[in-house]
Specification:
- The chain is of the alpha/beta class.
- The chain is built from 13 helices and 10 strands.
- An 8-stranded parallel sheet has the order 3-2-1-8-7-6-5-4. A two-stranded antiparallel ribbon has the order 9-10.
- The longest helix is centred in the C-terminal third of the chain and has 17 residues.
Length: 340
């Protein structure tokens, strides 16, 4: 199988501070993820001044200001910020990545020469956005929080009609609640997306902990996206539903282990590492007590004991009735050359 792409979603957890953004990049490098992702937007072009925060945003920020516009204004990254972070990522050997939220943002990110694009869940029903991102002709990762299968299919149709190759599309199952309750994950829906729509699938996770993204990889996810922060107690819309750096390290390690665990050929056979234990763990036929030459063996004369490098205990009924060719002691292991 191909290596799972792991995207560490820094998002807006920099809280508008370029130095915090660099610390997030450092944490992503330490965890050995493939991409560290931010968000590219201008509040003036993605939200009405009268728009209210989501309930989780108001709760997590706790500043008494209900304005989504002002929240986003405080979290913008400037052109200079973007370029500084791209340079910093290059110096650290990690891929800088970001999500745009309008056509202008897509065009801006295209100028930074990304190798793929991300459609966030909120833009899945935004026709001009989908058209613009498809026209980049780049591979696309599509998040599907809040969507049903028909909406996902409609978005895919728009992308394909404007130039996205279906084989270059990965659809991420996602739930847009921060944090997502476990009972709402519905991880099997990821499989349904792949089966019904004929696309590669992945998972964008907003649960607490690392269990669900790890399970998603076991089920066949090819891309995993997960929010992370320097400190979950910080004020901001997404910190509470994010991993801390040590947890990000643990998640990447778990995913890489699962990749190895499911990479076998599917044939049930002894592995190279366990073959040496076959004789140690299995049993072969031994004698219960001293027996003289010429004795015809009865069931009461034999016992199954380790090691298993003699006559297999599965030959139990075949050994019964055989004649012993030489005197034997109790606990002696039998071989076919001992019998007639």
């Amino acid at each position: 199988m191909s290596r799972v792409i792991i995207i560490a979603e820094a998002g807006v957890n920099h809280n508008g501070d370029i130095n915090v953004a660099k610390q997030l990049i450092d944490a992503a490098v330490e965890a050995k993820v493939d991409y560290v992702k931010f968000q590219t937007f201008k509040a003036d072009t993605i939200v009405s001044p009268s728009a209210k925060k989501a309930a989780y945003q108001s709760k997590n920020i706790g500043d008494g200001d209900d304005s989504q516009y002002q929240m986003l204004k405080n979290l913008e990254l400037s052109d200079a910020d973007h370029k500084e972070l791209v340079t910093y990522c290059n110096s650290k050997g990690i891929q800088f990545f970001s999500t745009a939220f309008d056509v202008e943002g897509i065009q801006y990110l295209e100028s930074l020469h990304f190798d793929m694009f991300k459609v966030p869940s909120g833009e899945l029903t935004n026709y001009p956005y989908l058209k613009a991102i498809a026209q980049t002709q780049k591979p696309i990762v599509l998040s599907t929080g809040m969507a049903n299968l028909e909406e996902i299919e409609a978005a895919i149709n728009v992308l394909v009609s404007f130039g996205t190759k279906k084989e270059h599309l990965t659809v991420l199952h996602c739930n847009t609640e921060y944090p997502t309750p476990m009972q709402d994950v519905n991880l099997k829906a990821m499989l349904t997306i792949g089966e019904r729509l004929g696309v590669k699938v992945g998972y964008s996770d907003h649960t607490l902990g690392i269990e669900v993204p790890t399970a998603a990889v076991a089920l066949g996810a090819t891309v995993i996206e997960k929010h992370f922060t320097l400190d979950r107690s910080l004020k901001g819309p997404d910190h509470k539903a994010s991993l801390e750096p040590n947890e990000l390290v643990d998640m990447v390690s778990a995913i890489r282990n699962i990749e190895l665990a499911i990479s076998g050929n599917g044939i049930k056979e002894p592995s190279a590492s366990e073959t040496k234990n076959i004789h140690i763990a299995r049993k072969s036929i031994h004698l219960r007590h001293d027996i003289l030459k010429g004795t015809t063996l009865k069931e009461s004369d034999i016992i199954a004991l380790r090691p298993g490098d003699g006559i297999s205990a599965m030959e139990w009924t075949t050994v019964i009735g055989k004649t012993l060719l030489a005197d034997k002691k109790a606990y002696d292991k039998l071989n076919w050359t001992d019998l007639s």
